[in-house]
């Protein structure tokens, strides 16, 4: 029931189901501050997305049938297991002319797809958000939007630890953008 357009960010919480894969990712998610542990970029058409994650590199994958069901995407995503938290809208409330908004959406998608096509590796150095040689999930979204003059880094420190303001956290992106959560069934 959420509207998702090219360039919007699908935000998730690590862990899904009760199998060993879901439990493993739930444990990993506990290491990431906040409720939102992961970000994927919706690039369209259909259900096409790009993320840096479970396969140790940037990958493209498909949301099948318009429903976030991680069990149907595990092979494409490298056994990554997560639960939909909501959708963040980096271009929301910016008052951009529609032609400029569409241009940005297309550029963000092209940037992310180029990183997937190049098979860029996962960036384990979370302090180095300026790298374009490797990406972690929220860094990929950050760099794609920064190319278009939109800074998703709020400069928030992790647990008030100096030097951590360069880490781009998924929760930080969620908090800094208009967003929407799915309705309860």
Short summary of the structure?
With 185 residues, the chain is α+β, with helices and mostly antiparallel strands. The protein is built from five helices and six strands. The N and C termini lie close together (10 Å).
Spans where pLDDT lies below 50 across 5 or more residues: none
What coarse outline follows from CA principal-axis ratios?
globular
Over all CA atoms, what is the radius of gyration? 15 Å
First-last Cα distance: 10 Å
Strand fraction band? 15-25%
Q: What oligomerization state is this entry in?
A: single chain
How is the main sheet built? Answer: 6 strands, antiparallel
The number of helical elements comes to 5
Tell me what you see in this structure.
Strands 4-3-2-1-5-6 form a 6-stranded antiparallel sheet, sandwiched between helices. It is 30% helix and 16% strand. It contains 5 helices and 6 strands. The protein has 185 residues and is of the alpha+beta class. Strand 2 (38-42) and strand 3 form a beta hairpin.
Key terms:
alpha+beta; globular; 30% helix; 6-stranded antiparallel sheet; 185 residues; 6 strands; 16% strand
Give me the secondary-structure topology.
Elements: E1 9-14, H1 20-29, E2 38-42, E3 48-52, E4 58-62, H2 70-77, E5 82-88, H3 98-117, H4 137-146, H5 170-176, E6 179-180
Antiparallel strand pairs: 1-2, 1-5, 2-3, 3-4, 5-6
Helix pairs in contact: 3-4
């Amino acid at each position: 029931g959420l509207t998702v357009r090219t360039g919007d960010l699908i935000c998730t919480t690590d862990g899904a189901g009760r199998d060993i894969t879901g439990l493993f990712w739930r444990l990993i998610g506990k290491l990431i501050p906040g409720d939102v542990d992961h970000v994927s970029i919706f690039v369209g058409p259909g259900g096409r997305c790009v993320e840096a994650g479970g396969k140790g590199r940037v990958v493209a994958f498909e949301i099948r049938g318009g429903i976030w069901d991680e069990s149907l995407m595990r092979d494409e995503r490298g056994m990554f297991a997560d639960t939909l938290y909501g959708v963040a809208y980096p271009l929301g409330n910016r008052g951009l002319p529609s032609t400029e908004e569409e241009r940005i959406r297309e550029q963000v998608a092209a940037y992310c797809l180029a990183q997937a096509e190049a098979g860029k590796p996962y960036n384990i150095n979370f302090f180095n958000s300026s790298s374009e040689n490797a990406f972690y999930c929220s860094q990929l979204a950050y760099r794609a939007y920064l190319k278009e003059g939109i800074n998703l880094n709020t400069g928030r420190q992790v647990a008030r630890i100096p030097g951590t303001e360069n880490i781009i956290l998924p929760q930080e992106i969620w908090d800094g953008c208009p967003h929407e959560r799915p309705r309860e069934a």
